[in-house]
Design goal:
Chain lengths: 296, 234
């Protein structure tokens, strides 16, 4: 038994598992990035975030498959559409609820979730649609294959983190986005139009959802309920990293993805999710403010 | 330079200012003194647009302040150092200063203004990469004043700059204000520290229960029996 375990641990497939966990973490990190940005700045949790991703996937699907648009261009349009959806979400819904009780804000974005889902079902039907694009895999050896889609997702997620970090730390707008999350009221004294800044943040958050949509569309079929399969995990990654803490969310994404893949390696894949969620519940008991939350 | 005419303001149903008129001339330092809850902070907030005036006129160099969007007021040359400093605690000193320079028309002068602030407060240069929330009270006040100076304002509004500071530091803060005055800046300051503030300003107004009750030169008010009785415990 023990010998079997150690053998499994030093097996080349275990290394493949670890690498795959790392690559899955990249996608989770990208998923949590936009949600964390919006929460950190506006202090409202967008329950409907995964549904915006779903609509981004549909946009890319229709432009590429039905419209014949090159995939890269379709993905860029998807980012544009989700950025607009993010902008509209704030302009038409959240903007009116900034002073409302948090539970009302949650209910409103929860309502949007069902609205987006229902609208997608009415407009596109419930069939599963596949982009039909396969990037293939990279053979590291005879036995080890890494999916190019996951490698690409990881690279893009890492790239986005770097770009976002540079934007937030170097530019005036980025500084204002950090500042507004620390003291909303005095932004007027800095000459900042808070309404505009919130809209910009919502559009950036929406655009990040579109980027995630492009990567997810390569791996999964699109259907109106696809948001439900990665919405909860996105929230858990954000909460475990400390809601609004982008660095924490980024790290938590990798903790989560490694737990899922390692659990899946030693048992069935489903057990990987059980392990990850059990760890999440345990983590919430010992550090309810998030594993990587700063002490304030 | 800055003129208020018959200004009323408040929060919801609560009216905090009644028919306030005052003016500050270029190069002057003017104080508004009065007890807790007299509406001093409200007065500052109305001028910088943090709360709207319900009635009245506010003009900066002949241009109506109330007609401008609140976030454009700093662009008219009015910088406000808010009560309790209100720095961005999890940002560095330098990032806090940068926020003072946020408006596009100020950005070209960022380096020059930063040098000016560091020259005025060398301590801020030493602390430039430190989180503002970890500064001492006096240093936070320097940072807050520095942030307001980044926009190269014509008038500086200061709301209780000595509040919450140790007595030794309070003296330093008043010295700082004198140095800023020496740079030729116009200052409107709200203070509870009546005796000390009257030593560094030219004129002062007394605000009580939301209305201006007295006005005079600093010397007149320092000599006034009523002021001595109400504010200095004599």
């Amino acid at each position: 038994m023990f010998a079997e375990f150690t053998e499994a641990l030093f097996s080349i497939f275990f290394i493949e598992t670890l690498i795959n966990g790392l690559l899955l973490g990249g996608v989770l990190a990208l998923l949590s990035l936009g949600l964390n940005l919006i929460f950190g700045v506006i202090d409202v949790v967008w329950i409907c975030y995964a549904e915006i991703i779903m609509l981004g996937m549909y946009t890319i699907y229709f432009l590429h498959v039905d419209g014949g648009m090159p995939l890269i261009l379709a993905a860029a349009c998807g980012v544009g559409v989700t950025a607009l959806l993010g902008w509209l979400t704030h302009r038409l819904v959240i903007g009116y609820l900034l002073q409302a009780a948090p539970i009302n804000q949650l209910l409103a974005t929860g309502g949007l979730l069902f609205f987006f889902q229902g609208a997608a079902m009415v407009a596109f039907g419930i069939e599963f649609r596949n982009l039909g694009v396969s990037l293939g895999s990279l053979a590291l050896s005879e036995d080890i294959y890494l999916s190019w889609t996951r490698l690409l997702s990881f690279a893009i997620a890492a790239g986005v983190v770097v770009v976002l970090y540079q934007f937030l730390s170097r530019s005036y707008l980025g500084a204002a986005i950090r500042a507004i999350s620390q003291d909303r009221e005095i932004m007027i004294l800095m000459g900042v139009n808070t309404k505009k800044l919130y809209l910009l943040t919502s559009a950036i958050g929406g655009g990040l959802a579109g980027l995630a949509a492009a990567l997810l569309a390569l791996q999964y079929d699109v259907h109106p309920f696809i948001g439900l399969s990665f919405g909860p995990i996105t929230f858990m990654v954000c909460v475990m990293g400390g809601l609004g803490n982008m660095v924490g969310g980024f790290l938590a994404a990798f903790v989560f993805s490694e737990l899922i893949t390692i659990g899946g390696y030693f048992a069935e894949l489903e057990w990987g999710y059980v392990l990850a969620f059990a760890f999440f519940i345990f983590a919430m008991f010992i550090r309810p403010e998030g594993l990587f939350a700063r002490k304030s | 330079m800055l003129t208020l005419k018959n200004v009323n303001a408040g929060y919801g149903d609560f009216q905090a200012l009644f028919d306030v008129s005052l003016d500050v001339r270029a190069g002057e330092a003017v104080a508004v003194i009065g007890p807790n809850g007299a509406g001093k902070s409200t007065l500052m907030r109305v001028i910088s647009g943090m709360i709207p005036a319900t009635v009245g006129h506010i003009e900066m160099e002949g241009v109506s302040v109330l007609d401008a969007p609140a976030h454009d007021i700093v662009g008219m040359g009015i910088a406000h150092v808010p009560e309790n400093r209100r720095l961005f605690p999890r940002m560095t000193v330098e990032d806090n200063l940068r926020m003072g320079c946020f408006m596009p028309q100020f950005r070209a002068k960022y380096e020059a203004r930063k040098d000016f602030v560091y020259e005025l407060f060398p301590r801020m240069l030493e602390r430039r990469n430190q989180m503002a929330g970890t500064l001492s009270g006096g240093e936070q006040q320097m940072c807050a004043i520095g942030r307001a100076l980044m926009s190269d304002p014509k008038i500086l509004l200061m709301d209780e700059p000595s509040a919450g500071l140790a007595p030794v530091i309070v003296q330093q803060v008043f010295d700082l204000i004198e140095r800023i005055r020496a740079e030729g800046l116009t200052v409107l300051i709200v203070e509870q520290n009546v005796r000390q503030v009257l030593r560094i300003v030219d004129r002062a107004y007394v605000l009580e229960s939301g209305s201006l009750r007295l006005e005079g030169t600093a010397d007149e008010l320092l000599q006034s029996a009523e002021i001595q009785k109400s504010f200095m415990g004599m």
